[in-house]
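Board work, copied verbatim: ABC transporter, ATP-binding protein
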Amino acid sequence: MQKFGKSCAVYEREERRVENIKMRVSGINKSFPGVKALDNIDFAVRKGTVHALCGENGAGKSTLMKIINGLYKPDSGQIFIDEKPVEIKNPIQAQSYGIAMIAQELNYVPEMSIEENLFLGRLPVNKIGKIDWRKVRKETLRFLEQEKLPYDPEQKLKTLTVSDIQMLEIIKAISNNADIVIMDEPTSAITNREVEVLFEKIAELKSRGVSIIYISHKMEEVFRIADDITVLRDGTVVETHPASELDLDTVIALMVGRKMENVYPKEEVPVGEPILEIKDLESRGVFKDINFYAKKGEIVGFAGLMGAGRTETMRAIFGLDPYDGGEIKVHGKPVHIKKVRDSINNKVVMLSEDRRRYGIVPIRSVMENASISSLDKFIYGGRSHPREEKKLVGEYFDKMNVKTPSLETAIQALSGGNQQKVLLAKWMLRDPDVLILDEPTRGIDVGAKFEIYRLMTELVKEGKTVIMVSSELPELIGMCDRIYVMNKGMITGCLNRDEFSQETIMRFATGTEKAEV
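↓ predict structure ↓
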């Protein structure tokens, strides 16, 4: 989007933009073994504005933010705050420069309490050098009351949902009185109501002159709150413009390097007999009267607001959580699923909504993460067969377009979208008949989303069944053959494809309408 023949007004506007810079980076380079993550990056954020950073997974967004926050050291380049060069060696030092970051992957200690989490790394001490727990409690209660969160300060994080934890991380970041707040996918696991609370906070921070770097794959959010937009692709800055000069199609084209005609690659697939049937499934106090079926060749969606019981239902079917009553049938035969192994043996597998907590083994290689559930294929006759393991895992990685420097690369070094595809490869190695995908596109870019949608289509074309749990109504409407809607632990409606609409789904999701299922 080159501009020629600029007017004086345009030059004056750009001069004001330069004078208003709070933080900028110049000539930043960063390489990891086998890949150049950032290539000569120049980037700046103005005071009191929201600067959105867009790009596919692996474009370098999170790497750049980790350099600004002191988690990574750049190979070369310089960081300036208020036009003064600074060297940021660690997050504590970043905090001293007024930088706070909400990371894409939630980093928390499950056994830690809420108050310990909020003050982690900055616990106040009294005159004799002991932790002032009274002050910690007082401040925690003030934060929770201010944000209208009904939690006990002593409550452990392991008892909270992903949504709860993400909201606490947001509160923790903005409670440090930072001048620069980095938000990396802050809305990936929170409800629409909590998103509105966050946007109110962002407006408040802007009014105080705080600069916000906002990373999100939700383009409607970007265009709602961003003042400026920078697009990264393959570790380089493609373009930077005021948000008012861009539109959705332009940003997506800049991100992926091509125009995407069809976001949802849904195809008509012959539907066969029911593979999975659930009758009167119940978990007291969690969900009840769960009745549904999923046929061969179908993509069946599950919609509902946060806390509706969708994930809990799927966890019970997969054997992660116990259930108190009901029947599960696979291929018309009743099965007893008491643990995950029972589900896998019946060719029913599940991709969790929280890949960091329940999916990946961060320090292990991508190959180990992919093969961990299929070791019986590679360990037999009293010894392992690594050549067969590499060959089969490599084939699935090629099929799913997993971008990794090597099979030995630690999975934590991959982007979120590529981690997700590794986890899908793990289950594909089991050759399942039913694949339950819980929020499969959370926190990944439009390009990676398209690849996962395409994979879902390929799976049902092979005669498999996909169950898709998602909070994103457009993708449910775009990809599913039928959608079940849940509210307060019950299925309140089932819609066929010709009945899909966001308004209808929301009526069932909020309980304002209920149908016989």
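Residues 372 and 426 are 7 Å apart (CA to CA).
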